[in-house]
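Two proteins, back to back. First:
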Amino acid sequence: MNSYRPEEWGASPEQPSTIRPPYLMGTGVVTGEDTDTRPLAPPHSHPDAMLAWCYRGTVWVQLQESMWRLAPGQGVWIPAHTPHTARHERDSTGCYTYIGDSSLITPIEDVTQVLVPRAVQEMLLHLGINDMPTDLRVRIQSVLIEMLQHPSAEAADGWGEVPLPADERVRPLVQAVLADPGDHRSANELFLAHGLHERT
C-alpha cells in the first residue's frame, strides 16, 4: 500500500454522503480486481461514519498514522470526517457500510475494530442487490445497526492496528516492506539497503 505524505493527508477531500432519507445506511462493495496493488482512492473522508469490513481475502485500511489488516468477518469503524484509504489483495472483496450519525445507537468517535457476523454480512449484501418495500428496508437497516453496535462476546485477538512511523527517513523502508512483505532479506539487510541504522 502506498504511503502518503502528511500534506496529502491534510488535503484529503470529503466525498458527499451516499445515504438518502429515509434510508439509514448504504454499503459499497469493491473487489481485488477493482484495485489490486493500487489503493482504492487517495486519502479521503466521508461525512458519515464508515464500517470497513472484509468479506473475502485480505483488505488493508490505512489511516494517516496506522494501518489495519482485515480478514473475512473483521471490520474497523472509522468516524465521520476521518481521512483514510484502502487496498484489496487479489481475489479479495472489501465492503464499506456508511451510517449517518443520527442513525447510530452510540456515536462512532474512535477508530475501533469490530467483528461482523456472517449473517450480518449477508444481510448487508442482500440489501444492496434486492428490491423491497421502503419500510421493510429501513426496519432491517435499524436492526443491522443495532447488531453492529452491540458488543460482541467473541474476542478479536490476533488482529488489529499496525502503527506506521511518521519519520521521513524511515518512509522508503516502510514503503518497500508494504510493497513486498515476503522479501527474504533480514532486518539489517533492509536497514543497510535504505541507509539506516537499526537505532533509527
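And the second protein:
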Amino acid sequence: MVRELSIPTAAGVFDALVAGPPDGRPVLLLHGFPETGRAWRRQIEALAADGRRVVAPDQRGYSPGVRPELPADYGIGALVDDVVAITEQLGWPTFDLVAHDWGGAVAWWTADAHAGRVRTLTVVSTPHPGALAEAMRTDEDQRARSTYMRDWRETPATEDRMLADDAELLRSLYAGRIPQDSADAYVRHLSEPGALTAALNWYRSGRPDAAIGVIDVPTLYVWSPEDIAFGPAAARETGKWVGGPYRFETLPGVSHWIPEEAPETLNRLLLEHLRAYGD
C-alpha cells in the first residue's frame, strides 16, 4: 500500500510517497521536470511487491516545505545534499538510487560524490552529465534538442506562457504519453503559487561548481530513441563515463516519459538490475 510521508531535514520538510516493508532493502526514486514523486507509482508498486522499502520524494521546489526563492538555492550541490539528508533521516546508510530526467542528473552527481552510499544506480533518459556536455560541444542534434533550456531561463515569461490557457503549454510537454490523471495532477501541483518558478529554478541555478567523474557503482541506463530532449550521441557516450558494471538498454517506440509510458518494461529491467547486485 502506497502512503504519504513527510521527511524533515535541515532544508525543510519533503513530501514523499512510501511503500514496502520497513526492513526491506531501501530504494530512493527521484523524479524530473515537470512531475512529482507520483511519476513512480508503477515502480513503487512493483518494488514494494518485491519486498523493498521504497521512497519517492517531491524534490526541492516541488515540496512546498522546501521551496527557497533564489535560483542559486537550486544548484546541483544543494540537490545532492537533499538526497543525503533525506536518506540519513530515513536511516539508510546505503540505498539503491533510481532517477529520471532532472532527477537523473542529481543521481549521477550523487553517485559520483557519494559512491559509498549508492549500492546501485539506475538512470532513465538522462545521460551522464559528462556525456551530455561532450554532445553539446560536438553534436548539432543535441544542441538543437537543448535549446529549450536556454528559453526556460526567462522569468517570469516562461511561467506565464506555460500556465496560460489552462496550462496548455505545460500540458503539451507530456505529449499525451502519460495517464491523463497524472498530467492533471502535475498541472494542479505546479499551478500552486510559486511552484512552477521553483521547478524552473533548477534550470536557472547556473553551472555546477566542479566537474563530475567516472561512476564506479553498478549502473543501468535506460534510454528511448523518441526522447525529445536527449539524443543518441549523449546516450551512446554515457558508457564511457561508467567504470563499474554497466548495462545500457534502449526502448524503441517510447518517448521521454519512460516510467509512465513503459512501466512494465522498466520495472522488469529495474528488478533485474537490483537483483543482480546485493540480493
